Recover the amino acids of this structure.
């Protein structure tokens, strides 16, 4: 089979649309995966998009819509023939409809909810009560739950009755008479057991579950640590209320990493991909941070002004200003990105603060000593003065130690105070380190050069 | 059920170990998940670790080992009684053994391979032929394959015979007579179908598969785009050779994001978590980059030296040096982190270069105009000179435009040349921008202030 060639599917589909060969197109669509149809739809105009959705089976059309942006999902459902749209909506999982309804304008949401089958409405309204980044916000209601005293035979019979509608059905959950989750059985174990065995004998009771109001990041951490493909969600009384599947969690992990990378780069996280973000969005996500940092960095100008007389008497001192601020920023960024990532992955916690501080002091002393030696020879070559070279070397040593320590500790302090550690990004740390470095440098230089 | 309290399990286990109440400990262990036992083992000394592994069922012990570092896996298997170790190894999936054998010293690997059951050796040696970051390197051989002409009944019979040993069994793959992957059926569909139906009638033929030599990042992308829980792996002739599961892919996604974040922070990616990395590792992953950047940044010293006479006649010009270098670095970092992440997620490709360039020019002109106005008033307040204020404002505008453009384009150019875009990290972009900013500033200042 090898890799599927999406480009060639698209070309064939476009030819069939042009020649109105809808029978061939229907056959082609049957061979495609919903994700592939979605990427095809993204390149077509609305009339063709509607033709394709109508040619597909209702289930396939429903799955295809899931892969589109919310505004496109709404637009297509709104413009499809009413009966077709209603059928597709009835085939969409309740959590997908809930996400769509919460993402679009309330007026549009009313239209969609008006096409939802009566018996689904309650489920959707229930899902809509949870924030989109909580376990409840990403869970699905399509699980199968059985009672612990049922036999394997009865469970299989129940499964045959309800399983067709529930797309997530590799595991069957066992609940007691008040709905509390007490066990889990895989379909495989069911198939391998004797029909008369009570389910309580074969179920696993060490079920890992997550509270419905927990953060989605917590769900991602649990699933990745415990190597789970499906994670059950329970309410405050331990009752099973939904399940989270690994494919949704992959999106969460990517989303959270993207947010961290954007923050580390010093802009607010974008809600939409870069190419879909408007100029004004890109501008506003970036300008606040630039102005804020400028205001903080303005302190450096005042420090330089303060040492004006030193600067005028030995202009050569100014040659090394960018080196200190840059090197300090670099080593601070290195340390902070290592610690921020370790915090995000749960490898270190705020309790490790002292151990990290000791480790960073040692590493940064090694880095500082090396850079101090490099800096000494460089400064001596450029400025031709041993005094300046000594001032540069000492400053570099201290800058390395201070910046690494600040870089490592700021995220931990932030995390302790409940501030997202990723806010302590390269730009912020650079700024803090600049102020420390310049003050230090001019004081050392004044001392060594004996300038008043 | 709620969240499982790992801390309280650990305390109970330690008490039972101290009082040698092994019967109670065995019962407690049965209630724990292998991941939980692994975190418990990490806090114990070797004699206790061995007691716990011996108390557990062979399957549980095998699963627990998977969650430990390779060196610990080897040490425990080596120090366990030979018959116990052999049983545990026989219960470990072949891909887990292959990963272990490849991670440890060849001499140690020989010892482990000596304990592997004869019939497993070939599988393990086959897996060892693939690089660890390829699809073949992360795939498992524990899948079930059947022939397309078999009936549902026969498939279920086959499943009952071989399914017990294969831990990954939510899907059954269908192959033709030369082993080529032609379809997939879920266990659910099998259960819901009439026993006499040929498997070819219910199987899905639009199977998404990945070539065995593809990169693991490619596998992660496919599974996340297609929302797959299991991805089959095929050789160059389309024959099914393994499967990749979503829990392994979650680790890949986290690993790749961590690597990107470390590179963006300007250090080589760490192979081990921060706390497990030695001082010398942390030093050597960071020092090369610091020295390299220092060498590049040294150019700034030469630029300042070149404009020495300008600096001595108007010392106030030096007050704003850190502002330019920092602001340029900040906006360059913003732009590059947005683009690097978009490239990593596949949201933009190198083909979008022109569109991105136009977008960045527009956004950065807006950012530059805003910062130029802010900078004008600030410089006027600090230096009290309209000429200097104008030089600062113009420089800031140009710095913003140049740094955003460089920040956005460098990762794309790198990607085109086959260089990992994450190398174009904050520190590197800052350095490039510094050089541009300082040259510009002094030329503009010389022009406006009329200094010779």
């Amino acid at each position: 089979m090898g890799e599927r060639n999406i480009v060639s599917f698209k070309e064939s589909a476009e030819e069939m649309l042009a020649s109105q060969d809808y029978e061939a197109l229907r056959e082609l669509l049957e061979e495609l995966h919903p994700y592939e149809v979605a990427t095809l739809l993204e390149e077509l105009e609305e009339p063709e998009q509607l033709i394709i959705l109508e040619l597909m089976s209702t289930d396939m059309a429903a799955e295809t819509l899931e892969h589109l942006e919310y505004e496109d999902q709404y637009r297509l459902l709104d413009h499809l023939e009413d009966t077709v749209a209603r059928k597709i909506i009835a085939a969409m999982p309740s959590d997908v409809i809930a996400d769509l309804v919460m993402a679009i304008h309330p007026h549009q949401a009313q239209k969609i909810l008006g096409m939802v089958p009566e018996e689904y409405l309650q489920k959707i309204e229930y899902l809509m009560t949870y924030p989109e980044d909580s376990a409840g916000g990403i869970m699905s209601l399509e699980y199968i739950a059985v009672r612990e005293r049922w036999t394997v035979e009865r469970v299989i019979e129940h499964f045959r009755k309800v399983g067709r509608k529930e797309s997530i059905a590799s595991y069957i959950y066992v609940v007691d008479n008040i709905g509390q989750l007490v066990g889990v059985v895989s379909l495989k174990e069911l198939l391998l057991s004797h029909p008369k065995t009570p389910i309580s004998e074969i179920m696993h009771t060490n079920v890992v579950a997550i509270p419905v109001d927990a953060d989605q990041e917590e769900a991602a951490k649990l699933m990745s640590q415990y190597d789970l493909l499906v994670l059950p969600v329970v309410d405050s009384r331990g009752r099973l209320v939904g399940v989270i599947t690994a494919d949704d969690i992959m999106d969460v992990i990517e989303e959270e990493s993207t947010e961290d990378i954007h923050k580390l780069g010093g802009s607010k996280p974008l809600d939409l991909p870069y190419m879909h973000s408007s100029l004004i969005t890109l501008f506003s996500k970036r300008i606040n941070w630039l102005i804020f940092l400028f205001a903080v960095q303005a302190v450096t100008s005042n420090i330089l002004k303060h040492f004006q007389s030193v600067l005028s008497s030995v202009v050569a001192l100014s040659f090394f200003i960018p080196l200190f601020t840059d090197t300090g920023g670099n080593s601070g960024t290195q340390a902070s990105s290592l610690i921020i990532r370790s915090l995000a992955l749960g490898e270190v916690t705020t309790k490790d603060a002292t151990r990290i501080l000791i480790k960073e002091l040692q590493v940064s002393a090694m880095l500082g000593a090396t850079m101090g030696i490099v800096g000494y020879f460089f400064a001596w070559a450029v400025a031709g003065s041993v005094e300046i070279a000594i001032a540069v070397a000492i400053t570099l040593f201290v800058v390395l130690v201070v910046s690494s320590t600040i870089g490592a500790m700021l995220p931990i302090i932030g995390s302790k105070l409940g501030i997202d550690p990723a806010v302590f990004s390269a730009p912020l740390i650079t700024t803090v380190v600049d102020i420390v470095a310049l003050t230090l440098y001019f004081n050392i230089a004044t001392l060594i050069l004996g300038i008043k």
Observations:
- Chain A is about 65% helix and 5% strand.
- The mean pLDDT of chain A is 87.
- Chain A touches chain B through 131 residues (CB under 8 Å).
- The longest helix of chain A spans residues 353-383.
